[in-house]
User: What shape does this take?
Amino acid sequence: MPSWRKSKILVVGGGGREHALCWRLRQSPGCGELLCAPGNAGIAALPGVRCLPVSAVDLAGLCAVVRHEEVDLVVVGPEAPLHAGLADALLAERNGRTAVFGCSAAAAEIEASKVFAKAFMLRHGIPTAAYTVARDAAAARAFLREQAAAGRHRFVVKADGLRAGKGVTVCDDIPEAVRAAETLLSEGSAIVIEERLVGREASCFALCDGEEVVPLPPCEDHKTLGEGDTGPMTGGMGALCPTPVVDDDLMVRVRDEILQPAARGLVAEGRPFRGLLYAGLMCTAAGPMVLEFNCRFGDPEAQPLLLLWDEGVGDALAALEAVARGQLRQLPPLRPVRGAAVCVVMAAAGYPGRVRSGDLIEGIAEAEAVAPGQVVVFHAGTVLDPSGGLRTAGGRVLGVTARAADLPAARALAYRAAAKVRFAGAQLRRDIGHRT
Ligand code: AMP
Ligand code: GLY
Assistant: This one.
């Protein structure tokens, strides 16, 4: 792409991560027209952004958009379309003139199948918890009985397929693991049962265009609904960046022992990865170990990361475009982020179970006015009603995100802003960023 031409961009998805992507990409000098499919009420309100009523998993519809609109770059937010083959389909359009930030279906297997991911890690010497695969309840029970007899009682049971972060049960004892295994096997065909690790969690992201990996500042998620890391698993109730759990020395290990071998392994197995490689880690006494790989930015981790990713760090659009065009090696090095950011998720009544929709949301402008330029309320599940009122329309509704000089200041600001936002039944954790 000649440098004088601005890129026409399509962002696929409609959650908080995609709002943050659109918000950040719009500020790049190379950003021309910006489209989002399907987007949400917050994305639609960004100046110069056009939302299209095409679902993120409507592959034919998205290919048609790319053809008719002559899109230069597609940035795919969520995992489901990648797993369904969206990147492969888009690359076949327009004689390859559309670049795609997002990996092939073959590479997305690293997230879509826990069974594949565990065996892949074993093949490539990537540190992860010991595990077994069970395909029926009798085998799961027999394995867990054997483990109990050997004095091992703490396991994590995981469904094989994509489950929006909710197919995992962290078990305190064998009977709980047996129940979790039986439940998941009644819903699907295979599960992973793995040793329960102890340590601090972190989400480490890298830009990746084959063998080349460029790690991004490490983030920290808060996966359970309840304070003190209790209650049911969610897609993520809050996040911060950069996490002090991963210092510079540990980041070198994460790159050399995890991200780089994963990228090389995927190339070696004929599934080169082009997009965002996400390693969910447990930082244990023995070093960082992989809990899961994902094939896209974390949500809500992307919100604080992208809020911090300003011109001082480097041009975000140039970085995504370099990945999409296989030119990551030519990208000028990214500089460290300044300060810290915290995202507090506000979820709808009932989340992560059956959620209620249609509650009126108020106070977003007041929240952003708490510290203009430092607070951004990213929308996830929101919709405008015909009279122009903002309503809840999904599990995770908003991500109130704030940046400041350090983590305590960012956390305080995020909570001051979140206190201004009101909707019936809102759920939020009061302890985001309090582990550190
Ligand atoms: P996953 O989707 O595999 O990342 O699992 C979701 C969450 O379950 C992780 O963020 C951890 O909080 C927890 N978890 C997963 N695997 C383990 C493990 N082996 N040991 C302890 N906790 C785990
Ligand atoms: N926040 C966890 C994830 O995006 O998978």
User: Anything to note?
Assistant: Residues 248-268 form the longest helix (21 residues). DSSP finds 14 helices and 22 strands in the chain.
